[in-house]
Amino acid sequence: MRTDTPAARRPAMLLVRHWQTILVAGYALAVFSWTMPVGVFPPKQILDPVTMPVMRAFGLWQSWEMFAPDPRREDIRVEVRFVNRAGDGHVFMLTAMESMGYGERVQRERWRKFFNDHLRLDDERRLWQPFAEFMVRALRQEGQDPASIELVRWWRAADPQLGPDTRPDVRRTPWNSHVFHRWTVPPEFGR
Amino acid sequence: MRSIGRMLLQTAAAFDRWVRDPVDPRPLGWFRCWLGALTLVNIILLWPDMPMWLADDGVLPPELHQPPLPGPSLTVYAFSGAFRGAYSADTAAILLIRGLGVVGGLGMCLGVLPRCAAACVWLAITSYSWRNPLILHSGDALLRIATFFLIFARTDAVLSLPRWLRRRRSLAAGASEPPAPVPAWPQRILQLQLCILYLATGIWKSSGPAWQDGSAVGIVLQMGEFQRFPIPDILLTPVASRVLTWATLAFELGFPLLVWPRALRLPVLAVGLAFHAGLEWMLNVQLFQWTITAFYLLFLQPASGCPAVAPPEHQRPGDVGADRSVAAAGSAAAKPAPVRASSSTAA
User: Fold this and answer.
1) Distance in Å, alpha carbon of B8 to nearest chain A alpha carbon
2) Are residues A136 and A83 in the same domain?
């Protein structure tokens, strides 16, 4: 037996009539929870798992922690060194952004993101060998024939107390470097 | 207690009106057009490096792939394998991302099937974001979110090639077609999205010691990897760093509150434009400043030209009737809303 009465139907009708308001309020709450630190918004621990399937499925995931909670305190470069089978060595910086032209440095912003923020990290060592193999394939297309390849990270402290004269410049300020990956390329690789 | 309850009800009713009352279509149209141009630039900048970032023999082979969030997502990789006869799945995916990005971006720019165009761009951005999250910046997230909600927005009232052609024909026939108000909820969601973005980044920053002691901007400006155009030496001093750091915090935490009063809106948007123009000059962060300021278009209130939309202060609480709002939400797009005696808009 149906028990629907006008009073029982009212909440459903309200939902239908006010779906836009509910959607906007619900989305705002979900995004607020998604983007806030848990210390600021404790219900995040309950809300985020509930909203995650929707955020993921529709590509709405987000975080807005640009230079936060603190900016990185080191200026970074990533360099590739390789020696050809003929014995000639070559070195080039992947992310020396300040030495690029203005157009090039805009286009290569994602290089900075990938190499400086991810590849150079010990926590991301899974990326090192695939990148070395990619570099060897790319260099061969340019007519090189690498026998060994090294990935090097450079870093220096970015200290605002130092003043204008010390803006990062590999030639003028002390930099540290470390070879974080080294690979001897087997002659049969990729052939 | 009763007065608190009444106040809550009034607030809820005001929010309901704000979301459901139809709005002037022009801000959404401007936003769609400008965002289309930005998505085109974005796909062109990404174009030459796509094989490196996205192909199976690029820097992130499939066995290392970790999606941004675990679980299924709608991307071109779900069906790029269907082209296996002609292309490998990863090549097909790159071709699809390029094609969807260009066709969608042009469609958004020109207002040609703008909802489909937004869907194309959204799918392209979601796909490369899913395949290689290690190359993403905040501009990608903004473009992805904005194009998703533009799929549901009526944005073809202005800056639309088909509409311009229709108008030319109807003007020649002696008739004209004024822009009809459109459902507000996509615009409201995007406005709130921007406010939450500023609030979130402001709160995250305010917990950092470098933002508290005023050294954060100085640190960032010392980094060569972010350098764009030359900066005057005076900005590279500890005093300037403190001023810029705290001004950044004040702006990001203040924007979500101060942008709503009409009297403050234009000044706040002007300060925001100056703020992001400064960042664009000083920092090499691809397209983010352009994308975030595109959202400012959604806060503009056109001075005239859409007579069917009334400002909120002309609406009585009783106006929020279910019948009228249903018409406003679902079918205001299809038929003109009731004409009211005002020429300003409810942005």
Assistant:
1) 15
2) yes
What DSSP element (H or E) covers B45? helix B26-46
Shared domain check, A170 and A97: yes
Interchain proximity B64–A98, CB inside 8 Å = no
Q: Whose structure tokens read 């615009």?
A: B187
Side chain identity, residue B60: L
CB < 8 Å to B283, chain A: none
A38 CB within 8 Å of a chain B CB: no
Q: Do A41 and A109 fall within a single domain? A: no
Q: CB-side exposure of B305: number of CA atoms within 13 Å?
A: 12
Mean pLDDT of A164-183: 74
Under the banding of pLDDT at 50, 70 and 90, the label for residue A83 is: very high
Strands A74-84 and A89-93: antiparallel
Minimum mean pLDDT among A1-10, B144-153, B222-231: which range?
A1-10
8 Å CB contact of B222 and A17? no
Contact at CB, B16 and A21, closer than 8 angstroms? yes
User: In terms of residue numbers, what domain contains A31?
Assistant: 6-57
pLDDT score recorded for residue B325: 37
pLDDT score of A38 more than 60 = yes
- Please answer yes or no on whether B219 and A21 come within 8 Å at the CB atom: no
Q: What is the ipTM of this complex?
A: 0.89
Q: What is the mean pLDDT of chain B?
A: 86
| Same domain for A85 and A178 | yes
- C-alpha–C-alpha distance, residues A163 and B224, integer Å: 14
* Residue B284, SS3 per DSSP: coil
pTM: 0.87
Residues A89 and A156 in one domain: yes
The answer to whether residue A106 sits within a structural domain is yes
Of B201, B224, B238, the CB nearest to A160: B238
Same domain, A31 and A125: no
Q: How many domains does chain A have?
A: 2
Residue A107 belongs to some domain of the structure: yes
